[in-house]
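Note to self: keep these together.
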Amino acid sequence: MHLENSYRLATVFVLLLLLSASLACDRHRKYVVQGEVIAKNLNTSEITLKHADIPGFMPAMTMPYRIKDPAVVRELQPGDTIAADLAFGQDRSDYWLEDVRITAQAPRPQDKPALANPPQMLLPGDRVPDATLTNQDGKTIHLSDFAGKALLVTFIYTRCPMPEFCPRLSSQFAKVNEELKKTPADYNQTHLLTISFDPKYDKPAVLREYGLHYLQGDAGGFSHWDFAVAKPAEMQRLAETFGLHYEGQDDQIVHSMRVALIAPDGTAAKFWTTEWTWDELFATTRNVARSATPPSPH
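Structure:
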């Protein structure tokens, strides 16, 4: 009987080890990614990759990916075609590329003439150029209309089918909006702006319906959160300014993720790509607004 119990305990122990190993393997499962480098950001150690379908994970997409080795980011150039392993940490929100291999190399800067006036992406502290948009009410608005307030900006298109992209952005903005509403002073010193890069479909009426969904049907919320669209040429300039990549592909638009915070003085305060939480957006927006608001007299 003692030997039988010992055998059972040993069997259970082995099964637990196998289960633990299986879970660990699943958590650290890797997918092969192949695509073209569209842009890179040395400050965040990220590249924007236009990749093909990742079987078992996601369809073709253009989005930023983190690379832990900054030397690899320095080596990569826009136009390079690469293959890499997509690795995960404790959950699916923590991911990065590793074992990056260049399969087709683009001409290096010394091999081609530099552009006379290359697009200049904003850096924190840079003054944000003004832009003209049309909001959900068909009204013309400008970025400069929100001078004196902390302006949180992101980019979406209403038909976006990927839950981790546009719907996530809008849902997180809705949480930021609700949290700011709890403190009238913060609410009055901030504004949210969602810009669509799909002017052919996202007309004011479409944007209004879309916005009402995230405002829980309260049209009064548009006083604090605008949903707007720009003409194609203006949108392209905005994309270059804010470091956003997007392009049409069949009936969808592949795009990177970009959230920007403009300070009350009209300068760029902060940028986010994929690694952020709604409470981080909220806290940073509130703090930037408060830092520009003089203290009330006692």
